[in-house]
Amino acid sequence: MSTATPNPYYAGRKRGNLIAMGLCYAATLFGLTWLVLILVTLVTNGMAGLSLDLLTQNTPPPNSTGGGLANAIVGSLMLTAIGVSIGAPIGLLAGTYMAEYGRHSKLTSIIRFINDILLSAPSIIIGLFVYGAVVVPMGGFSGIAGALALAVIVIPVVVRTTEDMLLLVPNPLREAASALGLPRSLVIKRIAYRAAKAGLVTGVLLAVARVSGETAPLLFTVLNNQFWSLDLTNSVANLPVTINNFVNNPDPNWKKLAWSGALLITIAVLSLNIAARVIGSSRSEK
Amino acid sequence: MFLRLLFRTGLLPRSVLHLKRSPKPSRTPRAPSEPAVSHMATIDTTQPLTQAEHSEAQSRAQVLRSMKRGDIVFENLSKFAAISVLFLLGGIIISLFIGAWPAIKTYGFDFLTTQRWAPSLKPQPILGALGPIYGTLVSSLLAMVIAVPVGLGISIFLTELCPHVLRRPISIAIELLAGIPSIIYGMWGFFVLGPFLAESFQPAVINFFADVPVLNVIFAGPASNLSLFNASLILAIMVLPFITAISRDVFATVPTVLKEAAYGAGCTTWEVVWNVVIPYTRVGVIGGVMLALGRALGETMAVAFVIGNAFKIQASIFAPATTISAAIASEFAESDGLHQSSLILLGLLLFVLTFCVLAIARMMLMRLERNQGK
Amino acid sequence: MKLSSILAAVGLVMGLAAPVANAADISGAGATFPFPIYAKWADAYKKETGNGLNYQSIGSGAGIKQIVAKTVTFGATDAPMTAEELKKAGLVQWPMVMGGIVPVLNVEGIKPGELVLDGPTLANIFLGTVKTWDDAAIKKLNPKLALPSTSITVVRRSDGSGTTFNFTDYLSKISADWKSKIGAAASVEWPVGVGAKGNDGVAGNVGQTKNSIGYVEYAYAKQNKLTYANMINKAGKVVGPTIEAFQAAAANADWANSPGYYQILTEQPGDASWPITAATFILMHAEPQDKAASGEALKFFAWAFKNSKMAEELDYIPMPTAVVGLIEKTWANDIKVK
Asked: What pairing do the DSSP bridges indicate for beta strands C74-77 and C277-285?
């Protein structure tokens, strides 16, 4: 290394590097700061309202005290359960076709393309679709329409994960089963599904996490209900729309309930994501 | 495992990582396996079958027949389910089209160029989509302008600068941002971010650009809790994790030899990133950005809370505005007739827009796949 | 195996979801204007009789749409329908309560009832011609008040609203400028301002946003402790939004001679009258599909008329007894619930 004066260009490059790397640090801090701010706001505002009442009392009228979110929680659980029970089997079967029967066909690549579009479609469009297809013919809002809207959101997620997970099952397993005389459908059901079970479950969990927080599709399919109702042919209470209504109101009791409800949804969604991650990684460690 | 998660959520097509799919069924001939020794093999076929052998053959035939039936049922069921995905898309488009038809018939192309939004006008409402379209495009583009550099910065940090111990936690933390439901972003934006921006950030910027000729119109006051800028910032925070995750994974696929060669030639870290990593992963990154853009265009609840619901287009980004999804969310419940039809037409326009953006993204990523020799 | 267990789960949930024999739940939707009193009545009614009232406070425009589409038992609106509109839709309309619409603001240092505004200034604020709080027009009406020089953030409705209808009707009456440029309707092309959903949204926004002004039904201002402004009425007197001021305005209504009870109570004469008073109406089908539900709804309304004290506690004005008699006769004659 010469001991002459250092190359002037190098100093500039070094500086540029320092600036760029500094900006990268700043960017990371920027991103993390927002996360911390949002979570802190959510937790401090939501904790205040967390109590057993939240789970046992129904939604109160405005400008009163007490009350809870029991009817909204139950309504949301029902809608999610039915939406997933309709959407997951369809998604499962479709993914199975794409991975097993039609693996290299043109139809599959078209379906994969369309599925990816549906996966990222704005959920409010799905709400509009279900409004036109279900609410109008039925003559009114209903839990069934809401559940169908959620099912439409679940299907692309489950199709995607099912296909990917099934494709990861090594072919020799299937070939061995076929060689032993097992018919194709049983090869899939007994061998492929079993091998990919953890991944399939992960996919369904992710779909549940996705629809738990969705508000837009429920806005004009289910509407809302102030009281305890299990009747799905009419409006049922549900958490996202309830939070939406409560938060816009200046009543402090309602706002407290809205934040607590938001905290509940976030905890549910994040736990489902973590559970999916844990199940997914435990499978790969086999 | 991590990457698998991204595949599952649709963030990352497998092709981007050059991961092999399971190999095609091998065509090499196999050594014939030992024939299964079965009861049937010991039957003497020169004589007619005995009663016992006949009934056993019959029951086997029955079982095989039911298996075949089960096979056919299952295959057709799954094929039907797969095609239903296509029907779903078709159904959405048809349903939107039918709902939007009255508006299409009445307004035609003027719908795209009219700014006025007067649903209660008698005898016929004058409705135009220019306001919502402007808001959607500007808020999404502004969100991208903020999110892309930040997202790339975070991924560069995670791949090049971050100590290994912190890599996983920070990635998970950024991904948590993606998990938070959008209504919570809306609530936070309305109660926390909006007032903060209106009191500190916006007045500072307004004053800063007060004398600059063009910029003082774009950054004009008055400061507002609910504005186009606030919505753009919230959108940027929401799509940040998508860009980060995708970029980080494509960055990791750059062959180490390339980077080492650059370092060996004396490049600084930044020069390696700018001249080697980013050009190599260019298509993947752009695909990821387009996916994030698709998400930003369609976001409803977070935007509806903070954008201010004003249909009139104003030059300043600190003024309230509206987007297509926010307009639909706030006005649909009470609309009917031509008003409702126009809102559905807005929805159709949004769907077409996101469809195009996502299709372009997918095609870019497929081209990447093809270039890798698949 | 997986499929059958999923199907079993669906069956279980469906079983749970079968219509539970609830004590009759009446469904209604519409105006946010009377929501505080409807909610209070519904709560008390449920405690007394066990029947619930599911009222969706989604705005007058949406309420009219829901009742016309027959998806609810009754609709609620502060923008009354004319006799021809009622006939065309097959609806019966009657007023339930009356209340006042007040301008609310959020300016540091100004307490409720301190600021005085008159019609033309209010119109100019909402037109965007009066842009700052220390504008000459506001200063003239409030010589002793310390007004900041900050910009006014206007908060108005983003949804179709009977409150907006009455408010813009008032502004049209006192400002020719407003009448020609904007007019009176449930949903207008606001020249300035941010849009909020419902009376509650406007109240929430004004409470959150410094230097803002909006208009809400008085119960929202009272319950949320918002700063309201006094107004100068038709007689030139400064009045505050008190129940006496609302009653003075409401005394001018001629219910007996209005088909469909159509009455607009803005800018009424009288020294003590509040200039932006309004009645809120209920719509029901003359020949309802679900007679039982409609019968239950009428029972609720009859009970509500008897419990008008609750309305007064929230500063709503109950309908005069004579008018209640007329209304109940209308029910008997026009609504077929048998």
From this structure: antiparallel
Q: pLDDT tens across A109-162, in order?
A: 899 989 988 988 899 999 999 998 998 888 778 889 999 999 999 999 999 999
- Tokens matching residue B155: 């991924």
pLDDT single digits (tens) B99-139: 999 999 998 888 898 888 888 777 788 888 999 999 999 99
For the segment B4-62, what is each residue's pLDDT rounded down to a tens digit?
Answer: 444 444 444 444 444 444 444 444 444 444 444 455 556 667 778 788 888 888 888 89
Chain C residues touching B221 at Cβ < 8 A = 151
Show which of residues 101-140 on chain B sit within 8 Å of chain A, judged by CB atoms.
none
**Cβ contacts of B287 on chain A, cutoff 8 Å:** none
What number of C-beta contacts closer than 8 Å exist between B and C?
Answer: 78
* B window 191-250, beta carbon within 8 A of A: 191-192, 237, 240, 244
- Determine the residue among A23, A38, A220, A285 to mutate to test chain B binding: the one whose Cβ has the most chain B Cβ atoms within 10 Å: A38
Q: How many helices (H) and strands (E) does chain B have?
A: 17, 2
The answer to whether A82 faces chain C, any CB pair under 8 Å, is yes
Instruction: Check if the beta carbon of residue A187 is closer than 8 Å to that of residue A178.
Output: yes
Decide if A263 contacts A248 (C-beta within 8 A).
no
Is the CB of residue B351 less than 8 Å away from at least one CB of chain A? yes
Residue in B with minimal Cα distance to C59: B334
Instruction: State the helix-helix crossing angle for B51-107 and B337-371, rounded to 10 degrees.
Output: 120
Separation between Cα atoms, residue C335 and residue C302, nearest integer Å: 14
Write out pLDDT tens, residues B313-349.
888 889 999 999 999 988 888 787 889 999 999 999 9
Mean pLDDT of chain B: 84
Write down the pTM of the prediction: 0.85
Interchain proximity A61–C40, CB inside 8 Å: yes
State the nearest Cα–Cα gap between A149 and chain B, in angstroms.
Answer: 11
Q: Is B9 on the interface with A (CB under 8 A)?
A: yes
Mutate to test the interface with B, among C155, C163, C189 (most CBs of B within 10 A): C189
- For the purposes of burial, counting CB atoms within 10 Å of the CB of A285, is it exposed (0-12), middle (13-18) or buried (19 or more)? exposed
CB A41 to CB B192 under 8 A? Answer: yes
**Dihedral sign of CA atoms B318, B323, B327, B329 in order:** negative
C-alpha dihedral, C326 to C327 to C330 to C336, nearest 10°: -150
Candidates C65, C189, C195; nearest CB to B309: C195
Angle between helix A70-96 and A197-212 (nearest 10): 140
Cα gap A164→A199, rounded to integer Å: 9
Crossing angle of helices A106-119 and B51-107, rounded to 10°? 50
- Please give the torsion angle defined by the CA atoms of residues B166, B171, B172 and B173, in that order, rounded to the nearest 10 degrees: 90
Q: Does C194 touch chain B (CB under 8 A)?
A: yes
Interface ipTM: 0.88
Give the one of C6, C22, C203 whose C-beta lies nearest to A229's C-beta: C22
What lies within 8 Å, CB to CB, of B29 at 6+ separation is none
For chain C, list residues with pLDDT below 50: 1, 6-23
Q: Model confidence at A2, in pLDDT bands (50, 70, 90)? A: low
Q: Of all helices (H) and strands (E), which one includes residue C95?
A: strand C91-106
ω into B213 cis (within 30 of 0): no
Backbone angles phi, psi at C199, to 5 degrees: -55, -40
A220 vs C: CB within 8 A? no
- For the record, the structure tokens of A11 come out as 């100093």
